[in-house]
Design goal:
The complex is a heterodimer of chains A (about 450) and B (about 350). Chain A is α/β, with parallel strands linked by helices. Chain A is built from 16 helices and 14 strands. In chain A, the strands form 4 sheets. In chain A, strands 5, 6, 7, 8, 9, 12, 13 and 14 form an 8-stranded mixed beta sheet that branches. In chain A, strands 1-2 form a two-stranded parallel sheet. A two-stranded parallel sheet of chain A has the order 3-4. Chain B is built from 14 helices and 4 strands. In chain B, strand 2 and strand 3 form a beta hairpin. Classes of the chains: A alpha/beta (about 450), B mainly alpha (about 350).
């Protein structure tokens, strides 16, 4: 009898599922932007503010301007959990709905999507993450990593350390520790760091943190204490960041000598360590705080109307939230540029690729968008998909992030040839990699 | 009424010992194969093939692999994910070292590497049993996971540490890589899975499978009858790892297209173990049911709100689907501790006497 009921229940459920209409058909006159986000799992701590920022800016465009160029945006979040398999599942499930652009928000997912992009003709925007070599637009016409690559980050952090020490020649003989998430993301800058170690004569000490042991880094930091490096550089994400900051405090590592990449600079990364985290530094590529017209517009049109998912109004303007906003500014500008270039309101993914490749953040355009000073101006080109190689250092004062340096550049003289070599290596490893067929605008 | 073997007389021993002695079962199987080979590729959308059928087939094969070891030979292993990884990395290395040999050959060969590693880590099974063996295979999982991360030779010194699948052709059709259509990949996978399932079903019915089951049911008695425990157990480990290895190679080459070590982590091992337990220990049909339960159901659940036209936040759907799947696992195991396969058996038994049960 029990079995009968179970079977009957199952049949009813199945019938319901099959009889249901196959989803709300997308209105013809909308622009569909899927967002691959993660609000669950061990990386949610970093993923939630990013997801909120990305979503809120696009919602704000819908509320304030009625979309882009008068065409409403349809925004759909798909939960990846920072898991490459689920990310690909999200990609497959959304690409058929006319996706214009993908933001994987995971280097692992980006790596999986890079070969798919030229086949499906949908561009990938991996803003300041992903495969560094995609900066070489001649090889990777469908992948974009503006404003800068991880290798720029590695170069910049060394430039900053050199400045602190009084010149690049002072690095010789020093020990620099590199603690990183042992995944595609964390390993990405290693080739550059190793080359620089050879060139400038410092010793690079690597401390990998496996993804499933992010919250237990005592063994790595024990080694740090033993090796006693002069500086620690971190490429961390999710639960790894706050743990690393706490562990560094525990071994009394001097915090002002502990520098994270821009992804290790969330408020929630430093806050849990309390007063011990004061002095912790990270690189940054966007401004923090609410004093920007774009953030004020989000507050008025989205947060105050109750359309945002942020847990608290004060969380708007936090570093990773603003990073998400910056990401969406890039998405929107790519679409707007595509609209201007083609004269169409309803652009296709191929038009958006063109938009990404020709978009230009000049001072005037940034003022129009309300993002003056929010990030540095840059101009994407056919040749260079990561043209904005400028960062600044921010420092945790116990409550907020404070700028600790001016904007400065990575050493493109060194980085660019390595990027070109990496792109050539990628092609060599994938002999069937398609040659660029898209004309340079 | 429909499902009743009355009137089907067997006139030879072969007919009596057939895998499917009842005509309705044979018709059912033929129908399933017909649907799988014809209707699914013709009518299935790219999403349906890519995110449901292809992973389902990959996991079915891995589940069969673990089921041979756990369900038939009674050796508990937590290293399935790692053995799949061995297959995947072996296939990747073979494909890059010998690019001219067909990828299908590489796929089948890569299983041999997994089998070798499986035998190595199966050696302790002679001395230790049950939970202790599980811990020994757990060591395999962690050790191999470490290798995938730390031996750059395995991923051809790729700075990202990922293995990426090159395009490989057969008769001018792309089988793997970004240019391969989901339908092609699905059909190749399906063919391989059907053939390997057929081999497995013959294996478990023959003397090999019987000796495995003897070891499982009582190893001392089996030894007294003349089954040598070490070769039998090691053979079980070898065959099981071969299946897992091929599944791993298929997973990377025909499903994911690129993979990193987390794809072969302990979570994958547990996932396959759950598939075996939910599906039913010692049942090949159960392996498919378990894989469907653990893989397809969550995907369906995630797609369900949208099908019904309800908008729910992506993260909420994820949480709800985790809760529902967890609850369903408990419900299924309470209703039928022996898994879906036994549920199916009971259903068939009831169908035989329906509508006049006695």
């Amino acid at each position: 009898m029990r079995l009968h009921r179970l079977l009957a229940g199952g049949t009813v459920a199945l019938a319901l599922a099959l009889a249901a209409p196959t989803g709300p058909a997308l209105a013809e006159d909308t622009l569909y932007v899927p967002l691959l986000t993660y609000r669950t799992g061990p990386f949610a701590g970093s993923g939630i503010p990013i997801a909120d920022g990305m979503r809120d800016y696009l919602v704000m465009l819908n509320e304030r301007d009625g979309g882009i160029g008068g065409v409403k945006l349809v925004i759909e979040e798909c939960e990846t959990g920072y898991d490459a398999q689920k990310g690909v599942e999200c990609y497959e499930s959304t690409k058929g709905k006319g996706a214009l652009i993908y933001n994987p928000y995971s280097t692992a997912i980006t790596l999986q999507l890079i070969p798919k992009a030229p086949v499906d003709k949908i561009p990938i925007l991996s803003m300041a993450y992903g495969l560094s070599a995609t900066a070489v637009g001649e090889v990777f016409p469908w992948a974009f990593n503006p404003p800068l690559t991880y290798w720029d980050g590695a170069s910049a952090v060394l430039a900053y350390i050199a400045e602190q020490e009084g010149g690049l020649d002072q690095l010789s003989g020093k020990k620099i520790g590199f603690i990183y998430l042992d995944a595609g993301y964390g390993r990405e800058p290693i080739p550059l760091l190793e080359q620089m170690a050879e060139r400038y004569g410092f010793q690079l000490l690597k401390y990998p943190v496996p993804g499933d042991q992010m919250q237990n880094q005592s063994s790595q930091w024990l080694n740090v204490r033993r090796d006693n490096p002069a500086y620690m550089v971190m490429w961390g994400w999710g639960a790894m960041n706050p743990t690393a900051v706490k562990e560094a405090a525990k071994i009394r590592f001097p915090m002002e000598r502990f520098i994270g990449v821009w992804w290790s600079g969330g408020e929630d990364d430093a806050r849990p360590a309390g007063a011990d985290a004061v002095g912790y530094k990270t690189m940054n590529i966007n401004a923090v705080g609410q004093d920007y017209p774009v953030i004020q517009d989000i507050l008025t049109h989205v947060v105050d109307k109750g359309l945002s998912k942020v847990s608290d109004r004060s969380r708007v303007g936090e570093n990773l939230y603003n990073r998400g906003v910056m990401n969406s500014v890039l998405i929107a500008e790519a679409i707007a540029t595509a609209q201007r270039a083609t004269g169409k309101k309803l652009v296709t993914a191929e038009d958006v690729r063109l938009g990404l490749e020709t978009m230009s953040f000049t001072e005037e355009r940034m003022a129009e968008l309300g993002v003056t000073g929010f990030f540095q101006p840059f101009q994407v080109s056919c040749k260079n998909h990561a043209p904005g190689n400028r960062v600044y250092i921010q420092q945790w004062d116990g409550k907020t992030w404070q700028p600790a340096s001016d904007w400065f550049e990575s050493d493109r003289e060194v980085v660019w040839p390595l990027l070109e070599k990496a792109a050539a290596d990628y092609v060599a490893q994938n002999p069937d990699w398609p040659k660029r067929a898209e004309p340079c605008a | 009424m429909l499902y009743r073997e009355t009137g089907q007389f067997k006139t030879s021993y072969a007919a009596d010992q057939a895998v499917f002695p009842i005509r309705q079962d044979r018709i059912g199987l033929a129908l399933i194969l017909l649907v799988a080979f014809l209707l699914v590729p013709v009518f299935g959308s790219s999403f349906f093939l890519n995110t449901m059928m292809i992973p389902f087939l990959v996991f079915s094969l891995a589940t069969i692999g673990l089921n041979l070891l756990l369900g038939y030979a009674g050796q508990l292993s937590l290293g399935t994910g790692a053995f799949m990884g061995v297959g995947a990395y072996a296939c990747y290395k073979l494909a890059t070292i010998f690019p001219d040999i067909n990828i299908l050959v590489h796929t089948l060969l890569s299983g041999l590497f997994a089998a070798g590693i499986g035998v190595l880590f199966g050696l302790p099974s002679l001395r230790i049993k049950g939970f202790y063996l599980a811990v020994a295979t757990l060591a395999a999982q962690f050790f191999l996971d470490w290798c995938f991360n730390r031996l750059p030779w395995l991923y051809n010194y790729n700075p990202s540490g990922a293995i990426e699948v090159p395009t490989r052709m057969l008769f001018g059709v792309a089988l793997t890589g970004p240019n391969a259509t989901p339908v092609t990949r699905y059909l190749v996978l399906l063919t391989l899975v059907v053939v390997m399932t057929w081999i497995a079903s013959n294996l478990v019915r023959g003397w090999i499978g019987r000796s495995w089951m003897m070891i499982r049911d009582m190893d001392i008695a089996a030894e007294l009858i003349g089954v040598r425990p070490l070769p039998t157990k090691l053979l079980a480990f070898a065959v099981s790892s071969y299946y897992c290895g091929v599944a791993g190679a298929l997973m990377v080459f025909f499903w994911l297209g690129a993979a990193e070590p987390p794809s072969f982590s302990i979570n994958t091992s547990f996932q396959v173990l759950f598939m075996v337990i939910i599906g039913g220990l010692g049942s090949l049909a159960g392996s498919f049911m378990g894989a469907a339960f653990i893989w397809i159901l969550p995907v369906l659940l995630r797609a369900l709100p949208e099908m019904l036209g309800v908008t729910i936040a992506a993260a909420t759907v994820e949480h709800v689907s985790l809760i529902v799947i967890g609850a369903l696992i408990i419900v299924v195991l309470i209703v039928e501790p022996h898994g879906c396969a036994r549920l199916w058996q009971t259903a068939k038994q009831k169908l035989r006497t329906w509508p006049f049960p006695y």
